[in-house]
Structure formats: C-alpha cells, structure tokens
Amino acid sequence: MEKASSNPAFALEICIDSVASAMAAEQGGAQRVELCDYLAGGGTTPSAGMISLVRASISLPLHVLIRPRRGDFLYSTAEMEIMKRDIQVCRDLGADGVVIGLLTKDGTIDLTRTEELIRCAGPLSVTFHRAFDLTRDPLAALDDLLKLNVDRLLTSGQEATALQGVPLLWELQERAAGKLIIMPGSGVNPANVREIMASTGVSEIHASVRRKVEGEMVFRKDYPPMSSYSPLSEFEQQIADVTQIRQVRVALDEIQCSTSSPLTTCNPGLD
After folding, report:
1. How many angstroms separate the CA atoms of 79 and 226, rounded?
2. What was the pLDDT predicted at 263?
3. At what angle do helices 19-28 and 242-258 cross, to 10 degrees?
C-alpha cells in the first residue's frame, strides 16, 4: 500500500457514487470523497441510505453533492427547498461538507441563494462546484465566491478538462491568494496530474479515475434498455479504481518530496 503521510501537503478528493468506490478511495490513499448519484448526468444528490452507509464505511471526510436534478444551475423555489432539506439530511447523517452551485439566468453566481444554502450548511465545509465553469466571467465569479467565503472551488478552468484549463486555473489560483482553495477537476488521471499541479500551484485535486467492472448477472438480455442513453451495457458499472487513485496519490507525494527540505524523509511509492 502507498506510503503517504497522514497529512499530505497535496490533498486528493475522489468523486464517487457507491460504497465500493468510497472504500476504494480510502484504500487508494485519498484524503476526501465527494459522494454523488447519477454521474452520467453530471451528478445529483445521493439518497439518505447511500450517504448513511458510505459514512459508516469509511473514515475519510465525506462531502455530498447537493443538486436536485441534471441540467442547468438555475433553480426554482421548490428546488431550493429540496436542496435545503437535503443539506439538513447531510448534517444529520454525519457528512463533513456539501458541494453546491447556483447561477442566475444571466450566467453569474446567484449570491442570494448561494448565501442561503451556506447558512443552511452551518459548520459544514462548502465547495462551489463546476457550475462555475458555465459563468460568463470567471474572474468576476471568483470575486463573488470570495465575498461569500466559500471554502473551495471545484473547476476545470472553464474547459472540457483541467489540463486544458491550466491557464485559467493558474490565474484563479493567483487571484484567490489562499482565501479559498482552487481544486482542479475533470479528466485528472495519473498521466497528467503532475503537469496540472506544477502548472497551477494548487494544493488539492479532484479525480474520478474509474474502471469498468463486469456485473454478476448470469442471465442477460440486451433488450429492452433500462435507460434512454447508456454508454455502458446494462451489465457494466463504473467504480473508482484503487490502482489509479494510488498512482495519483504517489504523484502528489513525489511533488511534495521534491519541494521538501533535504532533512525531510519522503517515501512515496507502493508496497
């Protein structure tokens, strides 16, 4: 198993949608998980049962996505009430943080409603998610998030992947000046994590790094489909890949070792 420090300088958050992926994240050396449902649609809020069992299955900090539906991030009054109630459920079930994102119809951060949800979250950590990547002016949006005192921003730098978004990620990191955590996400993997970290100066990274696994059904039918769109067969699912998680964790530790004092003992690697 990877030899990582208990409090590494570079934190790895894994996006998960199952108990199996939660356990893989912990085994792989992640520092935190973001729990979602329906990742094929960009993620929605998981069930209370899922939150409860994931909380009971791992000791890692658990952040939960608060998103009542797929699609855009302009929400109705009813959807706001759903999110408030879901945040309360997360608090009751022992989550450590929530992940939110609300925009106005004009593509700016919805300051009023975001502040409402922050108040609902109380002491929980608050991350603003990739709704940020659909804002019309990312620097103005960052300034709004700084005013709201959110803890963290998950962003791809307004590109399809974090690697493509490196120029804006670097600019956001400089502008934030440590007042909130800039956490790159989207397409992060063992092959590109070193470049992303080195090029942006961030201290946290968000990844999914999943692999396909075969289901255990013996009797199988290809028709009728159980969803309107499925890039996987009905007998496949995706779970977090322990090996890739460890590889990303090792890469982060190697970066830390390379910047540490010569007197610091570093042992990145796998058993």
Report:
1. 26
2. 61
3. 30
Q: Which tens digits make up the pLDDT trace of 205-229?
A: 999 999 999 989 999 888 887 776 6
Residue 75: which of 65, 86, 67 has the closest Cα?
67
Cα(243)–Cα(1) distance, integer angstroms:
10
Token representation of residue 2: 């990877």
* Mean of pLDDT over the chain: 92
Residue labelled with tokens 């300088």: 9
pTM of the predicted structure, to 2 decimals: 0.88
Over residues 168-206, the pLDDT tens digits come to 999 999 999 999 999 999 999 999 999 999 999 999 999
* Region for residue 107 given its phi and psi (left: phi exceeds 0; alpha: psi -120 to 50; beta: otherwise): left
Q: Residue 244 pLDDT more than 90?
A: yes
Q: What is the mean pLDDT of residues 129-149?
A: 98
